[in-house]
Design a protein that fits this description.
alpha/beta, Rossmann fold, GMP Synthetase, Chain A, domain 3
């Protein structure tokens, strides 16, 4: 029997489009607030009107379906408007990583073939430096934040954001798009080669939104619900701020966009706006906890997802002791990004702090519609015993289909029909994933693989260690040996001998291999990081090669 569903000619084939996310949020909470730092408040109805005006303004500048509009801004209400208006009109939103070097920014603008650039005045020096080398000579540049352009006369401006919106109609007839239309493009921030463009369709972003909503809704630790107040502390240029602004808008929750990150301002917004749900990389939450202003702020009940890098147990403990409901999320630029979340199971909600830390610092369990495997070099599954290591490969309906204009790397990414994350992990019989290292960062010494992430977690248990990175350095006898780079806490009592003794204690207990004890510990003022706050171990290895 043929069970294929064939559409009745008059039936409507409903496409999954980003506009439906906005429409639902406006219907649910038309008067709910959206806040930009200490500068602006508006409602969801205002957001809808401004999205319409932005689409009209861009159309008046000649933007049409298939064109690309770049945004260079800090986290703001304007960025949220661009998240919707640009894809909804059939154009492509290019979220520019403003922390890249001017040359890398130029590369991404030219590679994406941007037709319009919406620019915060803070990035005017970058645009002034590269404008003459933008290959699309018709590219229009719009000033985002105010009407005074007297101090940026070196840039040829096509207008100012608010003025353009004011001149546009408050309604716009958005086209009915194919759900597979490309909606967004942004560029990876890896430490090798030029940035690579990843891209996502309307359908992918909608499905990612629903999967995240499904996983985060409900009761218990770490949940994100209608009465929460959302403030991202992940740049909106980085994987759509992990896609959570789309989810927050669909839910109709109060949203707070902080602009440029500053610990004192973040904490003030947290208090004044009664923020309850955020997400960030470990560096940011460590910066917030270490701020002088944090000493007088009650952080109890703040739910924070940590991604981008491993959550060190010592940092998890420090956050939990301040009352923060902290846990890990896992994904990457190529995966839109959410793959897994380490939400504490209900049965462990009242567990002792050590047990909670152990689970919260894992990489988590897959969200709905994510197929995840741990495989060896021949793509055979390894045992789910919490010990057997292999590469994490995934499938989900929202993973990028490849790299923009890069067939060779796209084929490598999807070798064997699974997206290769480049991460090494283990999985237990209950489906909990733990990333043990990046393939390129694992230390091969004495015939064994040693996890740099595990070693970093151990070193950070030293009361005098503020930050740590462990890298492998060449060794004539063992192939590689671990080198620990440590940033001291102010006025801390810490030295090489005490760090080695700490790690050796865990080797004696069988927690790690004896080969994992670093030969050397080097104290540094700061650790090199990528533009999105990840440890730049390629740079560290280059600097420590001798």
């Amino acid at each position: 029997m043929d069970l294929t569903i064939r559409r009745t000619p008059s039936a409507y084939d409903y496409p999954l489009l980003i506009g439906s996310i906005l429409a639902h949020g406006v219907r649910r909470a038309p008067q709910q607030e959206i806040v930009y730092a200490f500068a602006k408040r508006m409602t969801y109805l205002d957001l809808e009107e401004r999205v319409n005006r932005l689409a009209g303004a861009l159309t008046s500048l000649g933007v049409k379906q298939g064109d690309t509009v770049a945004v260079m801004d800090w986290d703001s209400h304007r960025y949220l408007e661009c998240f919707f208006a640009i894809p909804m009109m059939g154009a492509v939103l290019h979220t520019v990583n403003v922390r890249l070097s001017p040359e890398q920014v130029l590369y991404t603008i030219n590679h994406a073939e941007d037709d319009v650039i919406l620019m915060n005045r803070e990035f005017a020096p970058i645009i002034a430096e590269i404008q003459a080398r933008i290959e699309n000579k018709k590219t229009k540049i719009i000033l985002l934040d105010d009407g005074d352009a007297s101090d940026i006369s070196a840039i040829s401006l096509a207008g100012e954001y608010e003025a353009l919106l004011a001149a546009a109609n408050d309604t716009f007839e958005f086209p009915q798009l194919d759900e597979n239309t490309r909606a967004t493009t942004f560029y990876t921030t890896g430490t090798t080669g030029l940035p690579k463009g990843v891209y996502f369709s309307h359908r992918q972003l909608v499905l990612h939104t629903y999967a995240g909503r499904n996983t985060l809704s409900g009761t218990g630790p770490g949940k994100f619900n209608d009465d929460d107040v959302y403030m991202p502390i992940t740049p909106m240029f980085h994987v759509h701020a992990w896609g959570i602004p789309y989810q927050a808008t669909m839910m109709g929750v109060k949203q707070v966009y902080p602009g440029r990150y500053d610990p004192a301002s973040l904490l003030k917004l947290y208090v004044v706006e009664k923020v309850t749900f955020s997400h960030c990389v470990p560096t940011i939450i460590q910066m917030v906890l270490g701020a002088e202003a944090a000493k007088s702020v009650d952080l109890n009940g703040w739910k924070v997802i940590i991604g981008g890098s491993a959550l060190p147990p010592s940092l998890c403990r420090a956050a939990l002791e301040r009352g923060i409901d902290i846990y890990t999320g896992y994904g990457m630029s190529e995966t839109c990004p959410i793959l897994t979340l380490a939400q504490l199971p209900h049965e462990l909600a009242d567990a002792d702090i050590d047990t909670q830390i152990e689970y919260r610092c894992r990489t988590g369990r897959p969200v709905p519609m994510v197929e995840l495997r741990i495989v060896d070099a021949e793509m055979n599954d390894v045992a789910h015993d919490g010990k057997a290591q292999g590469e994490v490969v995934v499938r989900a309906p929202w993973l990028t289909q490849g790299y923009l204009k890069d067939k060779e790397n796209s084929e490598t990414l999807w070798a064997g029909g699974w997206l290769h994350t480049g991460d090494i992990g283990v999985m237990d019989k209950e489906g909990w994933l733990k990333i043990t290292d990046r393939i390129k960062d694992v230390i091969k010494t004495g015939g064994e693989w040693v996890s740099s992430l595990d070693l970093e977690g151990l070193v950070l248990q030293h009361p005098g260690a503020a930050e740590c990175a462990v890298i492998g350095v060449a060794d004539a006898k063992w192939g590689e040996r671990p080198l620990a780079l440590v940033v001291k806490k102010p006025d801390a009592d810490i030295d090489e001998a005490s760090v080695k003794a700490l790690v050796m204690g865990y080797a004696d207990k069988g927690v790690i291999s004896k080969y994992g004890v670093p030969d050397r510990v080097k104290f540094v003022d700061a650790l090199p990081r990528t533009s999105v706050g990840k440890l730049d171990k390629k740079k560290m290895r280059a600097e420590m090669a001798d």
